[in-house]
Amino acid sequence: MKQTTQQALTNLLRANSMTPDTLDGPTLTQLFLSQMRISLYGGESSIPMLPTFSKPFGALADGVPVAVAEVDDQEVRVSLVTFRGGQAQCTSQDSFPVPGRDYPAPLADLIYAVAELIQPLLDQAQALALCLPFPVDSDGKGDGIIRRFPGTMTVTEFSQQPVLAALQAELQDRGCPPLPMTLVSEPDAVLLAAGVQQPGCSRYVGLTWGSSVDVGFAAPGSIVLRWRGIPGDLMLFDSGLSQAQCVPFGQVDFSKDRDSYAPGKDLYLKMVSTDYLGEVYRLVMIKAAEAKLLSFGCSRDVLSLRWLDLDTLAEFLTDPEKGGTLAHFCREPEDREVGLAVGQAVLDRAAKLLCVGLASVLQFVGAGRDPKAPACVGLHGAAFSFPPVKAAWEHQVQTYLRDTLGLSVTLCYGENMLPTGAAAEALYSR
Predict the structure, then answer these.
(1) Taking 80 as the threshold, does the pLDDT of residue 227 lie above it?
(2) pLDDT of 76-87, one tens digit each?
(3) Looking at residue 192, what is its pLDDT?
(4) Residues whose CB is less than 8 angstroms from the CB of residue 404 and which lie 6 or more positions away in sequence, other chains included
């Protein structure tokens, strides 16, 4: 790449907070930590620390089937989970598109879909677990109210509606046998699944990275100073990371946020979610075209795009010469160099921000300080299924978490993390 092109490209990436000098990890980590502490003290914070009152450990009874329902912004999934010798066996799996994704729906429709799918499993089950990625205000008695749904969903009539009570009423109307019910968040389910699949680690956290992003951790309830009389026992927490606003927004992030749902909110999510990474790349490439870093033909093709998904970007980064649409656009070697550099910068920024969020939680709970007792990080989400994204993530784990901050971590990419962790919590809560 010519020196003048390289300098212009560096300036472009700097304007979009994708260079080391605009993405200082330690500074961002301290900003995240301060927001977490403010939340616990009861102040105004963009990172709500949500206690779940759920147990982070317990006994896994052999041969006790648990019916698990997972709900996200794509679909409802159900399975029957039974533990044998500490290993989870997932059977009777089924799924259905989630109400509220393609059309507006009340909470009752979502509850109906869960009940419809899980009802055939209840005759075999001895407990039921509902796993959600949405922020929930727990009532301290096992139930909770969903705070909000993501921008990809339109769900109404959920305010002040305890989720498990609504599901229990729906199942009772169907004549289903009453079962103990447990509400589990996605990041906490991932944490618990890591504990099942890699036992013996000193500390565990759970990280989800896909259309939603969050980190779950365990800590004493007494850290929540805004609530008097909260139990001081060790419990699971959700970090509410996706709502963070203390992020280095770049030039294209402003225009993307302006045209998205809820401008000015969920800024962290809009920089790292798999729903947005392809679009971030498209917008930066438009800026590259405007800066004359691309040939006329490549610029024309890039400007013709109205939307770009992560699959298309990952395909190009995996095979720059034959990788689909973007490889066809970047036929000239100079265009390919710019396209690859921008793509890698987009993924590196997202991975760095994920590591910043994870590092803030690890430092908050004091995990990973001892090289002889590394913290185990359970991982789940669509992002890890894309090889270029996973490679960028693992590079940042090594260079930032381990080398820069000196944190000792092991990564757990297990199978069936959500149903395993949700079923484990249902057994711990019995």
Answers:
(1) no
(2) 999 999 999 999
(3) 98
(4) 25, 26
| DSSP reduced 3-state for 17 | coil
Of the candidates 380, 368, 373, 375, the residue with the CA atom closest to the CA atom of residue 418:
380
- For 318-330, the pLDDT digits (tens) are 999 998 999 999 9
> Residue 102 to residues 110, 111, 153, 163: CA-CA distances in angstroms?
13, 16, 8, 22
Q: How far apart, in Å, are the Cα atoms of 54 and each of 186, 261, 366, 367, 422?
A: 13, 32, 20, 20, 11
Structure-block tokens of residue 372: 């002889």
Q: Which amino acid is at 383?
A: A
In contact, 215 and 207? CB cutoff 8 Å: yes
Cα–Cα distance, 426 to 126 (Å, whole number): 10
Indicate left, alpha or beta for 299 from its phi (over 0: left) and psi (-120 to 50: alpha): alpha
Strand partners, 213: 209
Q: Tokens 């809560």 belong to which residue?
A: 429
Q: What is the pLDDT of residue 230?
A: 84
SS3 189: helix
Radius of gyration from C-alpha coordinates of the chain: 22
Q: 120: which 2 tokens? A: 């055939």
Which of 110-114, 222-226, 281-285 bottoms out in mean pLDDT, i.e. has the lowest?
222-226
Output the CA angle 170-153-305, nearest 5 degrees.
155
CA dihedral 149, 155, 160, 162 (to 10 degrees): -80
C-beta separation of 104 from 78 below 8 A: no
Of 310, 314, 285, 278, residue with least CA distance to 300: 285
Residue 370: how many other CB atoms lie within 10 Å: 12
Helical spans, DSSP H, in 273-416: 277-290, 296-304, 310-318, 324-329, 333-365, 387-396
| Torsions phi, psi for 331 (to 5 deg) | -75, -35
Name the amino acid, one letter, at 123: D
In sign, the C-alpha dihedral spanning 253, 259, 264, 270 is negative
Whole-angstrom distance, CA of residue 45 vs CA of residue 34: 9
Q: Rounded CA gap, 277 and 375, in Å?
A: 28
Both structure tokens of 396:
């940042």
3-state secondary structure of 218: strand
Query: Of all helices (H) and strands (E), which one includes residue 320?
Result: none
Rounded Cα gap, residues 225 and 51, in angstroms: 12
